[in-house]
Fold each of these.
Amino acid sequence: KQEVTQIPAALSVPEGENLVLNCSFTDSAIYNLQWFRQDPGKGLTSLLLIQSSQREQTSGRLNASLDKSSGRSTLYIAASQPGDSATYLCAVFQGGKLIFGQGTELSVKP
Amino acid sequence: SAVISQKPSRDICQRGTSLTIQCQVDSQVTMMFWYRQQPGQSLTLIATANQGSEATYESGFVIDKFPISRPNLTFSTLTVSNMSPEDSSIYLCSVEEGQGAGELFFGEGSRLTVL
């Protein structure tokens, strides 16, 4: 059974710092991996999608990497801003569905 | 990406009642998914709803409790039946885009509080 784990559960950083969020999964037979952002009480916003054949994807200040063989992905956020404060969710697509991690709650202090 | 609208955005319900959540998409999609997010938890898939066929439910979820309709390629409903306080959650509709690329997009969610 696929299990997705995100570390750390919560992170607080001062504005301007670069940071890395970690995601690991137990079964490497995934179709793709998606990173989402969720603001309190809101739905999910898709940030980056990495297909199983890809190693990384970039969008603005965000860079996501995927090492399928080791079951790991990282989300790198450059020059963090208070507006980046949210919960970041990692999910793998397998067996026709997305399986989510528990998320990392990020707080960027001005 | 598709624009996904959910109604209601939030509601407060009495124990024992049922509520139907609507999900409208601005484009035709084959696969729609319903997720539940309990307070402080991550998302759990309830069921997959494909047009023209019965919904497929995940372990722990049954049709009598969460009946789903999928009348066409742009619309679906999820009913939460005979609600109890344990059903207090955010319910999210999701669609897959990209012709099998597996990229999912989500609505804003429906926050239900059961008293």
Amino acid sequence: AQSVTQLGSHVSVSEGALVLLRCNYSSSVPPYLFWYVQYPNQGLQLLLKYTSAATLVKGINGFEAEFKKSETSFHLTKPSAHMSDAAEYFCAVSVSGGYNKLIFGAGTRLAVHP
Amino acid sequence: GAGVSQTPSNKVTEKGKYVELRCDPISGHTALYWYRQSLGQGPEFLIYFQGTGAADDSGLPNDRFFAVRPEGSVSTLKIQRTERGDSAVYLCASSSATSTEQFFGPGTRLTVL
């Protein structure tokens, strides 16, 4: 069975600082991995996805994530935080080759302060 | 083009009542998913439709929950004899047959008093 662990339910950074949101997954088969962002009172929006191609994945709004099989990790990074990045971020896993039933982590709330 | 829409956006009901939540997927998307998001948690899978049929309903918590998609487009999630523990945001997502990306609606916030 697949599972996702997001380390840190709350992360706070200064504007312009590096953003690092951690995600570790568990999967007995090659996974697909996703990062979604949720702004207040809005639906989930896909930031980026890993589907067994390049291990370094670039997404929207300057975010990227690196798939590391040896560490079972898929951490999300952004070199310089903007105030508009404040939101809740969810890491998710699904089983490759099948339909895309997503298993989500508990989420990390990112706060960006001036 | 239009995204996934869900109605109502908010639903307040009393314990024991019946509710229906509606999802309009993106036109042409054959796959439709329902998730439930409780306060402070990530979304949890409920049910997956491929076309008209429920291909995986393993996430439905009990037999009070039921979902249909009779014409392979709009889906309705039905909850009988609601309980306070059913209070959550119910999310719907759709995807095309060839894509791994799910497009989510804004959700329906259900509050059971």
